[in-house]
Design goal:
Length: 156
């Protein structure tokens, strides 16, 4: 079960992180370069072989057409939520409805991540899964520290 979670997270990092960056900056070459840098750095830290890198890239490129519309829907839902919050006539009902659309888009993306996980899981070794777990824990710690700093900053 732990391995499924770790590999699911790997899929999330590669798919959501990489494709979100690529989608957000698709018109700019720097966006594509950023996606490549994220993948390269993760591949280096996990010590992926050339074959593993090729396999992961092949899987991800095969999933692009499935992920693009899901990511576009998520980006639009988040924009609409921000607009609902900032609207002159903002109300709880409108914000809850917009938030539900974000949640629905995230759920659709989570299902796609599950499918991606099933394809990526056979590629990693046990040692690479352990390394990924460590990276994931460090990222969780970083996020928790950021939330704490924001909370402290608001209190000041």
């Amino acid at each position: 079960m732990k391995n499924k979670f770790l590999l699911g997270s790997l899929a999330a990092v590669l798919a959501v992180g990489g494709f979100t960056i690529t989608h957000a900056l698709a018109a700019e070459k720097s966006g594509l370069a950023m996606h490549g840098k994220v993948f390269s750095r993760l591949a280096q830290r996990l010590e992926l072989t050339d074959t593993q890198k090729s396999d992961v890239k092949k899987i991800l490129s095969g999933e692009t057409e499935n992920l693009k519309p899901l990511l576009a829907t998520l980006v639009d839902a988040r924009k609409n939520l921000r607009a609902a919050i900032r609207a002159a006539d903002a109300n709880e009902s409108a914000v809850r409805a917009a938030s539900a659309k974000v949640a629905s888009a995230e759920a659709d993306l989570a299902v796609e991540r599950l499918k991606l996980f099933a394809k990526l899981s056979p590629i990693l070794t046990e040692e690479q899964r352990a390394k990924f777990s460590e990276l994931e824990s460090r990222m969780d710690g970083f996020k928790a520290a950021m939330v704490a700093r924001v909370g402290e900053g608001l209190a000041d």
